[in-house]
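Handoff note, outgoing to incoming analyst
You'll be picking up this chain. Sequence as last confirmed:
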Amino acid sequence: MKTYDLIVIGGGPGGYEAAALGVARGMHTLLIEKEYLGGTCLNRGCIPTKCFCRSAQVAGDVASAAAFGVDIPAGRVNVDMPRVVARKDAVVAQLRGAVEDVCAGVEILNAEARFAGPHTVEAADALYTAPKIIIATGSRSAMLPIDGAELTVTSTALLDIPVLPRSLAIIGGGVIGMEFASIFAAFGVEVTVIEYCKEILPMFDRDVAKQLRTALKRRGVEIHTEAEVCAVSSGEGIMKRVEFTKKGKSAAVEAEYVLMAVGRRPVVPAGLEEAGIAVGRRGVEVDARFETSVPGVYAIGDCNGLCLLAHAASAQAKVVMGEEVDLSVVPSAVFTVPECAMAGITEEQCKASGLSYEVRKRTFRSNGKALAMGEPEGVVKLISDQTTGLLLGCQIVGPHAADLIAEAALAMSQRLPASAISRTIHSHPTLGEALCN
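Most recent structure output, in case you need it:
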């Protein structure tokens, strides 16, 4: 049996961050990863999807070039999917190398790990032990328990698609579903989204999510809300048929590909429960410092089910390794066109909590930079405490929302009033002026 100071299981954003911090603190560190460093985020999620988003944005810019006084001789956008995929693969490979550099000094074992005891891990037919073990095994795509689910594809498969389809049906209107809807609509694909909830992006306030839904509908995306998918079956030729009910009526849509985008489920190593580590419905159960029911064993990132975001996993890794991080404000972004982002609590959460609050909105149609860019769609929504003036929440739909949300997140993290943003001079003309309500 080999002994280490720290064992990390999983090489995603949380895992490799923890392992690198361990080495920096002089700890003899073992990182066990069954596939590639970088985890889902780098290899099958955030980064590959953003590469597709960029290709989609370029396709959209070319398609609308005439509106800016630039004529494209051919007059038609042609998307070469093998080249789109190849560019994505090149970016992923480059960043994977960067992660390897970050992990310099970490002993890395490419194998699948299982717990053989409270502080003993088995991998590659050998046993390893450490007083501190961090589980960072991430999550996998969820599947609806419906007939024909095997006919659908996950986001991972769609990121390696060899030929651009003519049509795509998406089951689920959350972050993953709406990003792919936006991407493939820009590629010229006929896209239909089927969402069970009353509105897409259920984590956002409905008035904000409606802004995105309206924008995507104008770009040709068909969206069905309050629709429950019943089954998927083979249609004529290569077509798939998605059957669903909406307001008590049966309906169906046909498409070449059907994307299952109904969230993600935690991945946990085998042997946890036998080792005395409690696992609940959401994932590995942890306390406020991410320690499991076994002292010295921690679980961070998607596998604990608390916040399924790459940067949340990195932040949790820092906490477990003894750094002070404010976990009360975790911004999130949706890379659609237009982008969406949020931080803090929603108006609906304020109402449910009985808080006295104030809402201020400002549209991008009054923002000079947005108009010059030709991207006037969207709104900034700021929610503040009516008594203290503290900024409670911010939601943005509009150009570069994913970047703009950082200013609001900083204000909330530092417990600043909403007026602190408006009192700060913002350069003109910039999109940031939209926050100065």
